[in-house]
């Protein structure tokens, strides 16, 4: 985590940017259909806690992901601030056009690293999804939108098993050639371990010099937070997280949630790593979200609280 102890209890601070993905990746796999108003409330609470990049929604077919059917309505209702950037996930040109019209600040495209999952998740081959990125890159720049690419199943596929690291690195090289701003390595089904994270982050950094490197971890097998630490040690500067630890991919069998934003912030705060995020407010939002969903969220701090004790 690039934290150097001085022999006592203080550590050197390193800034890490956290992207809140709860409104999109968090809610998309929930059984309870969350109202547009509550989605906007979740986004507003995230901003109040200090989060400044929010994955607000995805512009996908509403029959495939019903939770995201109100994408335009969500974007119409979010607070507009100069210091907040809203990300919309898109899979094709139709989604891009919708996102642009809805007023997103950034678009996030997805390239899946395994053929079977790519066809189930996006209805296209891996090569076709790379071409989508190429087709949209220039239009994103012309529209003044940030463009990121998530390399999904980068650490393993539920249908094909192990994904060769060389495949992921090559995909990173290909999308980097289009001039994307940021490349995210996603452990879509939560199978990665720290050694994998270190190798992949190093490989992608070499293949995509100058691109911001981001990581997206799920805690399916209790390795998500260890992977986050490994990512920071490897030079990653941006991490995705979901308030309450909710979420998962609807097209991945037995999917469970993302790493929880509040749990991640606790880990970083106690390690002396600056995030600019208010832990107390995050814990309050996670508890509020439990009420919205009608069940306790997976994140631990919603139950345990922080240490020393927080009043959230």
Would you write up a description of this structure?
The protein is an alpha/beta fold and 312 residues long. The chain is built from 12 helices and 8 strands. The chain has a single domain, classed as TIM Barrel, CATH 3.20.20. 40% of the residues lie in helices and 15% in strands. Strands 1-2-3-4-5-6-7-8 form an 8-stranded parallel barrel, surrounded by 8 helices. It is globular.
Instruction: State which percent range the strand residues make up.
Output: 15-25%
**What is the domain total for the residues?**
1
Q: CATH superfamily membership, which one?
A: Aldolase class I
The CATH topology comes to: TIM Barrel
Keywords: Lyase, Metal-binding
Enzyme class: lyase
EC number: 4.1.3.4
Organism: Nocardioides agri
Architecture blueprint of SSEs:
Layout: E1 17-20, H1 22-26, H2 36-48, E2 53-59, H3 71-77, E3 85-90, H4 93-102, E4 106-112, H5 115-122, H6 126-142, E5 146-152, H7 165-176, E6 182-187, H8 194-207, E7 212-217, H9 224-233, E8 238-241, H10 261-270, H11 279-293, H12 301-304
Parallel strand pairs: 1-2, 1-8, 2-3, 3-4, 4-5, 5-6, 6-7, 7-8
Helix pairs in contact: 2-3, 2-11, 7-8, 8-9, 10-11
Q: Which descriptors would you attach to this protein?
A:
312 residues, alpha/beta, TIM Barrel, 8-stranded parallel barrel, 8 strands, 15% strand, disordered N terminus, Hydroxymethylglutaryl-CoA lyase, EC 4.1.3.4, lyase, metal ion binding
């Amino acid at each position: 985590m690039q934290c150097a102890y001085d022999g006592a209890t203080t550590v050197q601070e390193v800034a890490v940017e956290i992207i809140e993905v709860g409104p999109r990746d968090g809610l998309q796999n929930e059984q309870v259909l969350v109202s547009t108003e509550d989605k906007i409330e979740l986004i507003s609470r995230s901003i109040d806690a200090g989060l400044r990049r929010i994955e607000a929604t995805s512009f996908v077919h509403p029959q495939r992901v019903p939770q995201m059917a109100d994408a335009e309505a969500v974007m119409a209702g979010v607070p507009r601030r100069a210091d907040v950037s809203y990300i919309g996930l898109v899979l094709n040109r139709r989604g891009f056009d919708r996102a642009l019209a809805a007023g997103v600040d950034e678009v996030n495209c997805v390239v899946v690293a395994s053929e079977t999952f790519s066809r189930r998740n996006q209805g296209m081959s891996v090569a076709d999804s790379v071409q989508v990125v190429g087709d949209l890159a220039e239009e994103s720049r012309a529209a003044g939108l940030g463009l990121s690419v998530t390399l999904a199943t980068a650490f393993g596929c539920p249908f094909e098993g192990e994904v060769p690291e060389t495949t992921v690195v090559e995909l990173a090289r290909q999308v980097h050639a289009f001039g994307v701003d940021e490349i995210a390595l996603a452990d879509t089904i939560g199978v990665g371990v720290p050694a994998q994270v270190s190798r992949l982050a190093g490989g992608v950094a070499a293949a995509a010099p100058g691109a911001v490197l981001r990581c997206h971890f799920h805690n399916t097998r209790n390795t998500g937070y260890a992977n986050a630490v490994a990512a920071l040690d490897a030079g990653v500067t941006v991490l995705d997280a979901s308030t309450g630890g909710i979420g998962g991919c609807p097209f991945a069998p037995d999917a469970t949630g993302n790493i929880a934003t509040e749990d991640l912030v606790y880990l970083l705060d106690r390690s002396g790593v600056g995030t600019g995020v208010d832990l107390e407010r995050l814990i309050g939002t996670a508890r509020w979200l439990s009420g919205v969903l009608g069940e306790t969220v997976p994140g631990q701090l919603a139950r345990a609280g922080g240490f020393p004790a927080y009043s959230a």
